[in-house]
Design goal:
There is one protein chain. By secondary structure, the chain is of the alpha+beta class. The protein has 3 domains: about 60 residues, no CATH class; about 35 residues; about 35 residues. A hairpin with a 5-residue loop joins strand 2 and strand 3. The protein is built from 3 helices and 4 strands, in the order H-E-E-E-E-H-H. The protein starts with 9 loop residues before the first helix and ends with a helix. The radius of gyration is 46 Å and the shape is elongated. A 4-stranded antiparallel sheet has the order 1-2-3-4, with no helix packed on it.
């Protein structure tokens, strides 16, 4: 930076100093010129941060300038949309996992579909098995045993009720 000797000419020194100040002010104004946009309002101004998109309202109510963030409805909607998309993705993955566990997921088209078109795929390792004669006999024996126990319990219940009714009649009779 060149040196000026201000002792010989006060006017030249003042002009040089003013030029230097304007040069420094212009450089610093260029650094911050593009970041904020200010729009006047009735009570102050609205400040837009062009880098982050944040909007603030600035006012001077008590002689002290202060800015507070304005609610950003668009950001809130985008955040909610992102949250719902993530939740949807999670639920789809859970649904797909449960379908795989239950054997309900459709076959992948790349793997080649087994079965006829319109036919539901069978769960892996499972299929409908026709019961044998022995299986049917076993099921009927079990059912007959249940019915027998049920009849015995009903008979016991009826006998208990009969005894209670007979006891109540004896207490209510008056000897002559």
């Amino acid at each position: 930076m060149p040196r000026f000797n201000c002792s010989s000419s006060t006017t030249a020194c003042a002009v040089a100093l003013a030029g230097f100040v304007l040069m420094v002010a212009g450089a610093s104004a260029q650094e911050f010129d593009g970041r904020f946009s200010m729009t006047p309002t009735k009570d102050g101004f609205i400040r837009l941060d062009k880098q982050s998109g944040a909007v603030s309202i600035c006012a001077n109510p008590d002689g002290q300038w202060s800015c507070r963030a304005m609610p950003d409805d668009q950001k809130a909607l985008l955040d909610k949309l992102a949250k719902l998309e993530q939740e949807n993705k999670t639920l789809r993955e859970e649904n797909r996992r449960l379908e795989d566990v239950m054997g309900l997921s459709p076959p992948d088209p790349g793997k080649g579909g087994e079965g006829k078109p319109g036919e539901l795929p069978q769960p892996p390792g499972q299929g409908f098995k026709v019961p044998t004669e022995k299986d049917l006999d076993h099921a009927f024996d079990y059912f007959e045993g249940m019915l027998k126990k049920f009849r015995e319990r009903l008979k016991k219940f009826d006998e208990d009720q009969q005894r209670k009714d007979d006891g109540a009649k004896e207490k209510n009779t008056v000897p002559l």
